[in-house]
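R.M. (postdoc): so does anyone remember the format we settled on? I'll just put the structure tokens first.
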């Protein structure tokens, strides 16, 4: 199997929550999240290539203007670009574009995951493959009171009404900053993770996801305060 690692960056036109979310100016980047993410991925020497899949003409034009040999630009069909397009459909799309090696699936909405972070993730992934894991996904650890349907999910109130949060068993929240798996997993399981993914923990600031209008505000504040880097 090829040892190459290629990033898959899906980025469709339109957003139901934030108009032009992917290209909205952000933290000094005139072309916003797309500009930031492409520069980060291109700066990561551990990546053999980057495949950008989008139906947004503005993004296609911007990416083309970079004239980067490692950047493969794919004009995605409208049939795969609606709000109803499932992740399962995009999994098949990703492996149709990257047929061998390993796929690192990431998003522009994780602007604080830098080239250095991607390098660390890829190194950890290669190490964990030798230890019996078959894939990797990034997570954020939660130690807080979680309830569903009127009852707690992660602690026993019959034993203690309000245990100290630091004693609660951590729960991993998938932050979607990165998924990394061999192409064979995509083909055989039709998924971006395998049966035994390694959970790669990231801190809350680095993994900050920009999805809602308030996330932009918080993100820019983090940059201004020097809490994160781009």
């Amino acid at each position: 199997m090829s040892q190459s690692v290629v990033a898959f960056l899906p980025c469709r036109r339109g957003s139901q929550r934030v108009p032009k979310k992917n290209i909205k100016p952000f933290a000094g980047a005139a072309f916003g999240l797309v500009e930031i993410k492409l520069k980060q991925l291109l700066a990561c020497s551990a990546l053999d290539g980057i495949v950008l899949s989008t139906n947004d003409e503005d993004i296609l034009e911007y990416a083309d203007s970079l004239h980067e040999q490692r950047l493969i630009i794919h004009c995605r069909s409208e049939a795969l670009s609606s709000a109803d397009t499932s992740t399962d459909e995009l999994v098949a799309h990703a492996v149709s574009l990257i047929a061998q090696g390993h796929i690192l699936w990431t998003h522009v909405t994780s602007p604080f995951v830098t080239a250095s972070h991607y390098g660390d993730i890829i190194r950890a992934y290669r190490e964990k493959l030798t230890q019996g894991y078959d894939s990797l996904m990034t997570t954020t650890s939660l130690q807080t009171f979680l309830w569903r349907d009127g009852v707690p999910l992660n602690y026993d109130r019959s034993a203690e009404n309000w245990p100290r949060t630091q004693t609660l068993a951590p729960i991993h929240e998938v932050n979607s900053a990165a998924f990394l798996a061999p192409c064979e997993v995509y083909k055989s399981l039709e998924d971006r993770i395998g049966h035994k993914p390694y959970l790669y923990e990231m801190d809350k600031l680095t993994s900050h996801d920009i999805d809602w209008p308030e996330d932009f505000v918080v993100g820019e504040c983090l940059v201004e305060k020097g809490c994160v880097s781009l």
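R.M.: ...and that's the designed sequence above, right after the tokens. Also worth knowing: Strands lie at 5-10, 49-54, 71-75, 102-106, 135-142, 147-148, 151-152, 171-182, 197-201. Residues 115-129 form the longest helix (15 residues).
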